[in-house]
Amino acid sequence: MKTNNKFTLLFFFLIICSLNLSAQYGYGSGRGYGRGGYGYGRSRNTVPQAEMPDKKPEPKTAEEIVEGQMPKITEAIGLNEFEVAVVSSILTTSIKKRLELQILELDNEKTREALEKIYKRQEEDLKTSLPEDKYNAFVKLQKEGFRTNKKKKKKKKKKKKDKG
User: Fold this and answer.
1) pLDDT (tens digit, 9 = 90+) per residue, 32-63?
2) pTM for the complete prediction?
3) Helices and strands of the chain, counted as H and E runs
4) Which are the contacts of 61, defined by CB distance < 8 A and separation ≥ 6?
5) In 3-state terms, what secondary structure has residue 43?
6) How far apart, in whole angstroms, are the C-alpha atoms of residue 64 and residue 44?
7) Contacts of 26 (CB under 8 A, 6+ apart)
């Protein structure tokens, strides 16, 4: 009886070991044999995954818009720290109001009137807070659409390339 128990234990042990070996070698998955690329590593799904739709970038806040424009404005006009703070706060409030108008989605006539009021208020605030020459330079910069800095930078880069 003792030998019979030993054989049964040995038999079950061999069965368990063979299941582990076949799982290691790829036989258990039904995908292939040996080292054909199927038995090792993580098993891969053959069904293609659907692509995740790209999330639309969130619109910038008024502060982010102003932070992006202020270095250009400061460089072009030559504002000191106090003037930079004043101009950035005025621009931030006017941009916030414009963004609120976009959210409201009013009809064209009302939107145009509200935008004119916001723009006039911005002009008045800038006129009272900036010296006249800097205010005129700011207005000129707005009309040109901040293009002057780009042209100057391109010219500087070309001169550097010519010298080097």
Assistant:
1) 454 445 445 555 566 666 777 777 778 888 88
2) 0.55
3) 6, 0
4) 99
5) coil
6) 43
7) 32, 33, 34, 36, 38, 39, 40
